Amino acid sequence: CDIPITIHKVTGSTNEDAKALAVAGAVHGTMVLAEEQTQGRGRLGRSFYSPKSSGVYMSVVLRPNLAITDAVLITTAASVAVARAVEEVSDQTPEIKWVNDVFVQKKKICGILTEAVSGFESGVVECVVVGIGINVVDPGFPDEIKQVAGSLFGQRPDFSRNRLAALVANHLLELSAALPDRSFLDEYRKRSMLLGKPIRFLENNVWCDAVAVDVDNSGGLVIETAAGRRTLSSGEVSVRPR
Ligand code: BTN
Fold first, then answer.
1. Which DSSP string do the residues of the chain spell out, in sequence order?
2. Which of 76, 187, 194, 217 is deepest in the core (most CB within 10 A)?
3. How far is the CA of 25 from the centre of ligand 1 (A)?
4. What pLDDT, in 10s, does the model give residues 138-193?
5. Which fold has domain 198-241?
6. For the CA of 39, the nearest atom of ligand 1
């Protein structure tokens, strides 16, 4: 079927563009891509460094019709879609750091920002925008992010970012058709960077030690602490390996 795709040379944020299209009635799968973003946005109010010709900056309108309690599945599925696509175009084995950052060689190469558009009041996720930013070649990261941020390739002028974007989109649309059955969660767990490992999580401004033992069917991270087993919900806590 025909899916509308908008490609900008430069835009503020593809998520903002896609949200505007979604509000105007854009169909499931509608996509916005940009060569460069001037106001690229990340989670928790952060910005996302999106310099010209260095990455894939894309946003996809999804109309998943999913119970709100399952909303986190969208974002976890998006990270699986990126991991699959990255694996197909490189010889890397990407890892997913809960909840949805994709790492290669211990550096974050992809961030995902999923934003609600409509339906949440009714208890059903009618429409969301999934924004995906993949650092493909090394743009020379600013000092404040270069400890964490990496790129899929150092330099690869011959590499087709369009192909990578198309693979991500195809995987995401395929996965989004089967979210409620959660079958992709096993793949998500296998690709996890944290499971079975010692981690730290931030609680009341203090970093606490734990071991990550599972991701439950709601996308929560099950951890073992000195005080016992508990589950962290996505979006509420920062977690890092130790
Ligand atoms: C994060 O790591 O905090 C999430 C980053 C999400 C970045 C992507 S790039 C395409 C889309 N447009 C945006 O403004 N943000 C997302």
1. ----EEEESSBS-HHHHHHHHHHTTPPTT-EEEES-BSS-B-GGG-B----TTSEEEEEEEE---EEGGGTHHHHHHHHHHHHHHHHHHSS---EEETTTEEEETTEEEEEEEEEEEE-GGGTEE-EEEEEEEEE-S-----TTTTTTB--S-S--TT--HHHHHHHHHHHHHHHHTTTTTTTTHHHHHHTBSSTTSEEEEEETTEEEEEEEEEE-TTSPEEEEETTEEEEEPTTT--EEE-
2. 76
3. 22
4. 999 999 999 999 999 999 989 999 999 999 999 999 999 999 999 999 999 999 99
5. SH3 type barrels. (2.30.30)
6. 14
